[in-house]
Design goal:
4% strand, two-stranded antiparallel sheet, globular, single chain, 155 residues
């Protein structure tokens, strides 16, 4: 396990150990982001960027979420609802990415009209920013950002 510093965590920045799954999700998020950037088809670019955001959320949830006992059976919640509960400061991000879930599903199903090239490029940039924000919240050095570099043209 790697020792990390988390200034965004309750307790004022105490050093703690991040679970290995957090690092794995962050690595997989970066891989999905790279796939989105390299993809030549617009739906694939969008879907990969959205998956990168989901994996980023999963990394934060793995680091912060604690099991909760419920008396009335299990309640199913998606990653975006859980993110807003576990990290309220990221609720706007959760709302933003939750709004794109139906488009991602359509893009994954092969719809070529589900998203525009601009939407895919914008989502790549936002997923990139979200990954950097989460890395920072976890006390890690953020990855090199896509920033304002022009993205390759999709076909």
């Amino acid at each position: 396990m790697q020792r990390d510093h988390d200034p965004g965590r309750p307790g004022g920045g105490a050093t703690h150990l991040l679970p290995p799954t957090t690092h794995t999700y962050l690595m997989r998020a970066a891989e999905s982001l790279s796939e989105a950037i390299a993809a030549t088809e617009v739906p694939t670019r969008y879907a990969c960027a959205h998956v990168a955001a989901l994996r980023t959320a999963a990394a934060l949830l793995a680091a912060r979420a604690r099991p909760v006992r419920r008396s009335r059976g299990p309640v199913q919640k998606n990653a975006w609802v859980l993110l807003a509960e576990v990290a309220p400061e990221l609720a706007e991000w959760a709302t933003f990415f939750a709004a794109g879930a139906a488009k991602r599903a359509a893009a994954e199903a092969g719809s070529r009209r589900a998203v525009t090239e601009r939407e895919a490029d914008d989502l790549i940039r936002e997923a990139d920013r979200f990954l950097a924000v989460v890395e920072s919240r976890l006390g890690l050095v953020p990855h090199p950002s896509v920033g304002d570099r022009p993205l390759p043209r999709a076909v």
